[in-house]
Specification:
The chain is mainly α. Helices cover 55% and strands 1% of the residues. It has helices at 36-58, 62-88, 96-109, 114-126, 141-145, 155-161, 167-170, 173-180, 182-202, 206-228, 249-254, 261-266, 283-293, 305-315, 354-376, 380-406, 414-427, 432-444, 459-463, 473-479, 485-488, 491-498, 500-520, 524-546, 567-572, 579-584, 601-611, 623-633, 649-654; strands at 93-94, 297-298, 411-412, 615-616. Helix 17 (414-427) packs across helix 23.
Length: 659
């Protein structure tokens, strides 16, 4: 049983596909032959897009804005994951369903057909920043950004293009279909449907719907164009200081990961198009990784770390690659959470908390009614708000109460602590102080009567029943000696505890109900029950870790304890279900194996704030310690996450299972 979400996807290549520059960098004087029709099109699109910004602020419905954003992302992915990484560079392979999806996404972006796009891009790499490069950056920002589309091609580009090998693209049936039916496809997918959908489904006016489509379109164009202009002019060159392409924050953010351009021009066949694996802004890589996980993408090529390091040393500009973030601070020994009493679930007489039973009953009935209203009545904006508040509440528990305060697995500056406290208040699972005490008891006396949600008492008790009865005397007794000084002295948590009732009432219930009523005229009935729905989902997802993740799953790290690796709990809690790992190494800020995992959004959240400097001293487990623990106490299942792109290649080999 292989518990990892994916496969080993890196297929290192030692030499770049031959893209030798046949002519030196140049921008010889030339007389431009203008394409006036293109100039008119671009002028109109941008004027209409600017008007779209005005309408987005003043008139457009939220659903229209959200649709425009989702279509922008889809179009960007069609260009980045499709035209660029799949077809232009062949950095991975895709099965037919994914090829069709990417072709449709690319059509939505309307940056010509994929066949034309790929030809231009291969010319750009083969003759980068010369007159044979279609968007030669040596001719200036405007030319490389958009001007090259308003003039006829340079004769050198036409000449060199005739000898370019495009046989793989010309013979691709999906791309041939797109080329053949380009006009009706582009018209329908890029412009007609994005305009009609808001008009039909939520009565948006044609004026708003059309100009929001234009806004989405010019965003898509200019985001992609930034790579040709900005990322060839301003930024760092950690890999090759002798070429124009740079590492650009702006281009990376706008294009979902394409702005690591110095890296990309050095290693164009790397499917990640970025440094050494994971990057916070590289959404395109996440997209490809997801489809690799489900089997639609395969043969993902990546540059070996030793090759990257050698290139940095040989030709880099000595600026730190990967935006300079080193966040791992390995610790060798776990903080002492010794179990002082053996596992047990002795017979006991429960003393019921009837008020809590009434609350939980009402919340769940109201939440179930909220599901009905979400399907039949609620506005999209209300549903989206509920989802965003669910994520915020979940992060407040996972990144805040759990990883920051309960386990001290990283440190947070005051602004992040305040943010996490507010997010935690949104989830309303008692105050952080109470939550942390319960959780430290859970780790110190796991699955015993001193564990507040002792899983040996069954699914219902560990899931929610423990909150409907008074504490076991053993839990009360042991809790008195638990060290909580760091938490009791935290001013942010003291504030939350002091003002818990007004704070939680406002953040968790009042505001989430009032906002939909005030801003988009949602009824109180719908707004309130959507708040209840969001709240019970928050409760039950976190509760899954206490119940499901202590009963069903694999135990790669310690077969002698109850906690397991559980898919359901991991997905529901944004990364907390790698529970066998977490109980073996509770101080690891990732709460999961070896860095990146596709379902571990909480780790991404912490990594982002480490990147901007609000989180620091992130603690991780050394790989050799992991290996020793698996060999000593694991149940023989593979690493859940083996092949993760943050793993060292020699460590991947050391954990291979040979039959």
């Amino acid at each position: 049983m292989a518990p990892n979400f994916g496969t080993e996807m890196s297929a290192p290549i030692d030499a770049e596909e031959s893209y030798e520059k046949l002519i030196p960098p140049q921008a010889a004087p030339r007389k431009y032959k203008y394409l006036y029709a293109n100039m008119i099109y671009f002028a109109y699109w941008h004027i209409a897009g600017l008007y779209g910004i005005y309408l987005a602020i003043t008139s457009a419905k939220w659903a229209t804005i959200i649709l425009a954003y989702l279509l922008f992302v889809a179009g960007d992915i069609g260009v980045t994951a499709g035209a660029h990484r799949l077809w232009a560079h062949k950095s991975y392979k895709a099965k037919l369903p994914l090829q069709i999806l990417l072709m449709l996404f690319s059509t939505m972006a309307f940056q010509n057909t994929v066949i034309t796009w790929v030809k231009d891009h291969r010319m750009h790499h083969k003759y980068s920043d010369t007159d044979a490069d279609p968007h030669n950056a040596t001719r200036g920002f405007f030319y490389s950004h958009v001007g090259w589309l308003m003039v006829k091609r340079h004769p050198e580009a036409i000449k060199r293009g005739k000898s370019l090998d495009m046989s793989d693209i010309y013979n691709n049936p999906v791309l041939k279909f797109q080329k053949k039916y380009a006009i009706p496809l582009v018209t329908t997918i890029a412009f007609v449907l994005p305009t009609i959908i808001p008009m039909y489904f939520w009565d948006e006016s044609f004026n708003v719907a059309w100009h929001m489509t234009m806004l989405k379109y010019i965003f898509g164009l200019n985001a992609a164009f930034l790579v040709n202009s900005v990322a060839h002019m301003w930024g760092y060159k950690p890999y090759d200081k002798n070429i124009a392409p740079t590492q650009s924050y702006i281009a990376t953010f706008a294009t979902l990961g394409e702005g690591f351009h110095n890296y990309h021009h050095v290693f164009p066949w790397d499917y990640r198009a970025s440094e050494l694996g994971d990057n916070y802004l590289n959404f395109t890589t996440k997209f490809i990784d997801f489809f690799a996980w489900i089997g639609w993408a395969y043969d993902l090529k990546a540059a070996p770390e030793d090759l990257v390091q050698k290139r940095i040393e040989r030709t880099g500009d000595e600026m730190a690659p990967n935006f300079g973030n080193e966040v791992s601070s390995p610790i060798v020994a776990e903080e002492s959470y010794e179990k002082l009493i053996p596992p047990q679930a002795a017979p006991r007489k429960y003393k019921y908390l009837y008020a809590n039973m009434i609350y939980f009953t009402y919340w769940h009935i109201a939440g179930l009614y909220g599901i009905y209203l979400a399907i039949t009545t609620a506005k999209w904006a209300t549903i989206i708000l509920a989802y965003l508040l669910f994520v915020a509440g979940e992060i407040g528990i996972t990144a805040g109460a759990h990883r920051l305060w309960a386990h001290k697995s990283y440190k947070a500056k005051l602004p992040l602590q305040i943010l996490l406290m507010l997010f935690n208040s949104t989830a309303f699972q008692n105050s952080v102080i109470t939550w942390v005490k319960d959780h430290r008891m859970h780790h110190k006396y796991s699955d015993t009567d001193a564990d507040p949600h002792n899983a040996t008492r069954g699914f219902f008790y560990s899931h929610v029943g423990w909150l409907m009865v008074k504490r076991h005397p053993e839990a009360i007794k042991r809790g008195k000696s638990l060290d909580m000084s760091d938490i009791y002295n935290n001013p942010v948590l003291k504030f939350q505890k002091k003002y818990a009732i007004p704070l939680i009432t406002t953040v968790a219930f009042v505001l989430p109900t009032i906002i939909p009523m005030y801003f988009w005229d949602e009824s109180f009935n719908v707004a309130w029950h959507m708040t209840m729905l969001r709240y019970i989902i928050n409760l039950n997802t976190i509760f899954l870790v206490n119940s499901v993740a202590h009963m069903w799953g694999y135990k790669p790290y310690d077969k002698n304890i109850a906690p397991t690796q559980n898919y359901i709990a991991t997905f529901a809690t944004l990364g907390e279900g790698f529970h066998n790992y977490h109980h073996a190494f509770p101080w690891d800020y990732r709460a999961s194996e070896l860095g990146n995992n596709y379902l571990n959004l909480t780790t991404k959240f912490i990594d982002f704030f480490a990147w901007i400097g609000w989180a620091y001293d992130l603690k991780t487990v050394p790989e050799d310690l992991l290996q020793k623990r698996m060999e000593r106490t694991g149940d023989g299942t593979n690493l859940w996450g083996r092949g993760d792109k943050n793993m060292k290649k020699d460590y991947v080999k050391s954990t291979d299972v040979h039959e």
